[in-house]
Amino acid sequence: MTGRPRTGVPLWVLKLTMSVTGIVWAGFALVHLIGNLKVYGGAQGFDSYAHWLRVVGYPPVPHEGVLWSLRVLLVVALVAHVAAALALAVRARRARGGVRARHTTGRSRAAGAMLPTGLLLLVFLGLHVLDLTLGVAPAASPQFTGAGSAGSPYANLVASFTRPVTATFYVLAMLALAAHLWHGTVLAANDLGVTGARARRVMVWIAGLLAVAVVLGNAGIPLAVQMGVLS
C-alpha cells in the first residue's frame, strides 16, 4: 500500500450532478402531474393534450421534435443521476469500512431510503413506459388501443388502471416518488448552497408541497379508475 489518495470524479461534481439532474426530474414530475390532471376532463381533453405534445412547435420544429428532445434530456439526466448515486453510495460504504452504522437518526433513515425508493422508481419507470407509451404486453393491458396518435391515451390509461395489481403498484410508486422528491429536494438545496435557516425552511415546505401534490394528484388517478369515477 502506497497510501496515495484515490483518484476519480471529485465529490462535489457527483453531488452537483445529483442535484441538477434531480431538479430536472422534479420539474418533469411537476409538469407531468399537471398534464395527468387533464384526465379528469374526460377522454377528448386528455387525448387532445397528448396529441398537442406531439405537434408542439410544428412546423418550424419537426413533428414530435420537442417531445423527443425532452425524452433525450430526461434519459441523459436519469443515467447521470443513477451513475452519480451509485458512485456516492460506493464511496459512503468505503468510508464506513463496509460497516453499517448501528444508531440512526430520522435524517439518516430518510437518506437511507433514497436508494431503495430510487430502485423502485427505476422499475416503475420501465414498466410505465412499456405499459402506457409502447403498449408492450404483459405490462400493457390487452385493451391497449395503439401507440402514438393511432390510439387513445385516455382509453389506455383507464384500461391499465382497471387492473388492481397495476393500480396498486402505481400508488406505491407514487408514495416512493413523494419520499424521494421530498428528501432529494432538500439535499439538492443544501448541495447548491441554500444554507440559511429561513431559506432551508422554505425549501422544506416546497419539497413537502411537491410530495403531497404528487401523491394526491397522481395516486388519485388509479383510485378514481378503480372506483368508477374515470371510465
Automatic annotation (TrEMBL):
Top-level division of the source organism's lineage: Bacteria
Gene3D superfamilies membership: Fumarate reductase/succinate dehydrogenase, transmembrane subunit (1.20.1300.10)
Phylogenetic placement of the source organism: Bacteria, Bacillati, Actinomycetota, Actinomycetes, Micrococcales
Protein name: Succinate dehydrogenase cytochrome b subunit
Membrane-crossing segments per the record: 12-34, 68-90, 110-130, 167-190, 202-225
Protein's UniProt keywords contain Amino-acid biosynthesis: no
GO CC, one annotated term: membrane
Key words, A-Z: Membrane, Transmembrane, Transmembrane helix
InterPro entries referenced in this protein's UniProt entry, alphabetically: Cytochrome_b-558, SQR/QFR_C/D
Organism for this UniProt entry: Mobilicoccus pelagius NBRC 104925
